[in-house]
Amino acid sequence: MDDALSGQGRAARGTRTPRRRTSVVGVIGEVLITAGVIVLLYVVWQLWVGDLIYGAERNAEGTELSQEWQAQYEEQTPEPAPTDAGTDPEVVPVTAPPPVLAEPADGQTFAIMRIPRFGADYAVPMAGGVTRARTLDPIGIGHYPGTKMPGEAGNFALAAHRTTWGKPFNRIADLHVGDAIVVETQEGWYTYRFRTLQYVKPNEVEVLLPVPQAMDVPAGTAYITLTSCSPMYAMTERIVAYGVFESFTPRSASGEEPASLQAVA
């Protein structure tokens, strides 16, 4: 009996399924699959979810800075004394030329981009320099060093991402002729009007000339140039939007914004 039971026990043990041995190839395969999933999740975050969050943050920062500038203006500007507007018919309002700002340092925020075509809440901060590390990624829109400043005769040239990091220039190709491109500073609002788009190679730096694409031509007009990557998610070319300066609206105690910031149809 004992021998029979022992034999049955040995037989039972002999029928057990052998354990699956883990191979090096299998481990590497699992690691690669896990890494692929992580990379995919990162791409989804960076291109979609993160963009929504970064974009909202940029607009909130721009709006907050605009409110801060207005509050500072109201604190520093005394209320004008009441006058009788009808006593001197010869008095006419004087239109001052737009103030020209000093060129900002690398990473120094100096303005806010407002484009009604991109939405009423579009208010992206602008800073000096066009490096990703100091300006484009953490702030939004960068000013090409050496190009002109808002309202100044010549080329006020800017760069920003078209994808990722809030993608400030994502809709650059949606601009219509005549659309307002407004640069808000502590002094007031510089309004440009969009004129045309152009696609160029990355090494065609002539777009940054005082008169874009015109060598050795002195600038008599104030231009704005917006540059970004093209096509989407690639760096094969650059998409360039050009605009022409229209007017400057100084900041006032009433906080009234220029008519150019009204929503577009």
TrEMBL record:
Active site: 161 (proton donor/acceptor), 229 (acyl-thioester intermediate)
Parts of the chain that traverse the membrane: 23-48
NCBIfam families: class_E_sortase, sortase_fam
Region (Disordered): 65-87
Superkingdom to which the source organism belongs: Bacteria
InterPro entries linked: Sortase, Sortase_Class_E, Sortase_dom-sf, Sortase_E
UniProt-recorded name of the protein: Sortase family protein
GO terms assigned for molecular function: hydrolase activity
Organism this protein belongs to: Microbacterium trichothecenolyticum (Aureobacterium trichothecenolyticum)
Feature: compositional bias, Polar residues: 65-75
Keyword vocabulary terms for this entry: Hydrolase, Membrane, Transmembrane, Transmembrane helix
